[in-house]
Every structure is written in structure tokens, then in C-alpha cells.
Amino acid sequence: MRQALLLAERGRGAVEPNPLVGAIVVRDGRVVGTGWHQRFGGPHAEVLALAEAGAAARGSTVYVSLEPCCHQGKTPPCTDALLKAGVRRVVAAMTDPFPQVAGRGAELLRQAGVRVEVGVGCEEAAHLNAPYLKLLRTGRPYVIAKWAMTLDGRIATHTGSSRWVTGEAARERVHALRGRVDGILTGIGTVLADDPLLTARPPGPRVATRIILDSRLRIPRDSQLVRTARQFPLLIVHSRSSDPQLREQLESAGCECLAVDSRSDRPYLEAVLDELGRRRMTNLLVEGGSEVLGSFFGLRAVDEAQVFIAPKIVGGRHAVSPVGGAGIPRMNEALAASDLTIERIGPDVLLRGQLRY
């Protein structure tokens, strides 16, 4: 099963909003076929693994990281392929909660005489497909909060200087991450301060929609974001009371504008996340700055943090820290990250963890 999970990971960024799935076909103790879901709308993992196994699939055991589908979608049901191939046993890491499957795939196979086991590697499989599972469960995307900071916890100096906190290798990793998500979100403060482009360079398997929280439509018409709006999707979230003429100007430049309710001159993040979920965005990367990150953490909307730490100290009581907002009043109420991993990237360190609420 571990090999099936590793294969499934290869599809990240290419298959969403579908789940990541890997499959291994084993006959007489020998692997005879492997496959993973490689692109949205393409063949599923089981079908590819069975095709590689050929006649050797008859009487085999198939290990798959998610319950086989049993409905006609963009491709035929995987249960049909498994039965046609004469598979004797199927071991699935977890049940697929998608309403048209949800245990029906396993039951269909059992009724046809196939031995089915579900639950081997369930925790690892759920971790692998956390974004898919969240979108199904809540109708909202999986939120990744990313920032780069110094050893003393600063994302910029007291003058606002922030280029660059980390080294080139860490920045390359960020571009790779951008190329696997559906949306990249930041606030108007970051746009005015840094004039970012917010694209993946080089391009990845996905082209993310760049999402700007800009209640009063202050984004400059000559900013890199607006000037590239016809090349890379740009969604500007603004308040319902913003100037309609400014909206028309931005739309004529190729921007999409989304009006939502606001509070204290800030868009309701709940409404933004609901809309992104309706668009079937699975992964949302939030790149700050401090107030935007603080708003997401304050809402308890962050699912994963990716923190790049540089071996630098800038000091300064007025230097900017990563997470603004009101904050937590008592240390015993602090949000805790779990499933931590630490990776050295050039001179910097990447700390990753999931948030539990």
C-alpha cells in the first residue's frame, strides 16, 4: 500500500478536483502492474495498472489508495475494469466519500465475489488526499498558508524591506508550489508594497487564479497583476459599495471582479472561500501579508502552514511578523500544528505542518 500511496502523490497538481490515487497489481507475490491517476479526465489508477499487468491481472490482488469508483463519470467505472480483468482481491486504503461511491464500489465488488478489504493505510491515505476530502466535506478549498521569515520571526524589516528573506532554492520551491494550486491569494497591501506577479516560474501543471482582496479597488492599473490579466487569471475581490467605474476599468483590462459583503473595509473571507469552493478550487495558497494571514488564522481557515525560515536576524520592535490580527490571548489557546516535517533547502529550512481545530 505504501507504494500505491507514493504513486498517487505523482498526480498532485494534475488531477484536482479529483483525488490522488495509486494502484499496484500483485500476482504470486510479484508486482505485475502499477498506475496512478495522471491527469483530470484521464484513465484512473486501477485502469492503468491493470493495462500494464495484462493477462497477469487474473487472480491477482490490487492494492489501491482509494476505494474504486463505481459510477460513470469522465471515464467508465473502475469496478467494471477490475471485474473484467478477473481480479481476486482488492485492498483499498480508505472509502471514497464522494456521494456516488461512498462504499458502493466495495460492496459491488463483494457481491461479484471479489474479496475486499478497506482500511489498510487509511491514515496515510487521508493525509494524502486532505484537500480532496475537505472540499467534499465543507465545500471549501484546502488552505495553505505560506510565508518566509527570519530566525527572529520577521517577514520584513522595520522599513518594510522584504526582498529577499530566503535564498534562491527556497524561492524555487515556492514557484513549484504555485504551479500545483488552484488559487494564490494575497491582499492589496502586499500588491501596493511589492507589485508581485504571483505566477509559477517555470510553469507547473496548473495555472492558478491570482486572487486579490481589495475592498476599494485600489489595485494600480499599471501593476504587473493587471497588465498580465489576459495571460493569467486575476480575480479581484471587492466590497459591494466600491466604485462601479473602477470595476469597469478593471474588467476592460481583463480582470474578473467579485463583489462580496465586507466588514471594517475587509471582504468576508467566509464568502470568498465559499465562492472558490463553488468553482471547485481544491488548493488555495495564501501568501499574506501579515494582516491577511492573521485574518485566515483568526477564522481558523488554515489547513496547512509552510514556513520558510532563513538564518538571518533583523531585529526591530516595529519589524513585521508573519501573522497579524488580534491574536490569541493566552498561550494555552495557541493553535498547534501537527504532522510536522522539516527540510533543509539551501541555507534555509522549510517547516510544514497541518493545523487541527
Describe the structure.
It is a single chain. By secondary structure, the chain is an alpha/beta fold. It has two domains: 1-131, 3-Layer(aba) Sandwich (Cytidine Deaminase, domain 2); 140-355, Dihydrofolate Reductase, subunit A. It contains twelve helices and 16 strands. The protein has helices at 2-9, 45-53, 78-85, 104-111, 122-128, 130-138, 168-178, 188-194, 224-227, 244-252, 269-278, 290-298, and strands at residues 22-27, 30-36, 61-64, 89-92, 115-118, 142-150, 183-187, 209-213, 234-239, 256-260, 262-263, 266-267, 283-286, 304-310, 337-345, 348-355. The chain has a nine-stranded mixed sheet with strand order 10-9-8-7-13-6-14-16-15, sandwiched between helices. The chain has a five-stranded mixed sheet with strand order 2-1-3-4-5. The model has no long low-confidence stretch (mean pLDDT 96).
Features:
single chain; 357 residues; alpha/beta; Cytidine Deaminase, domain 2; Dihydrofolate Reductase, subunit A; 2 domains; 9-stranded mixed β-sheet; 5-stranded mixed β-sheet
Write down the overall geometry. Answer: elongated
Mean pLDDT: 96
Q: Strand tally, please?
A: 16
CATH architecture of the largest domain: 3-Layer(aba) Sandwich
Helix content: 25-40%
Radius of gyration: 23 Å
Order of helices and strands: HEEHEHEHEHHEHEHEHEHEEEHEHEEE
Task: Write the CATH homologous superfamily of the largest domain.
Answer: Dihydrofolate Reductase, subunit A
Provide the CATH topology of the largest domain. Answer: Dihydrofolate Reductase, subunit A
Unreliable segments (pLDDT under 50, ≥5 consecutive)?
A: none
Please list the strands of the largest sheet in the order they lie side by side: 10-9-8-7-13-6-14-16-15
What distance separates the N and C termini? 29 Å
Portion of residues in beta strands equals 15-25%
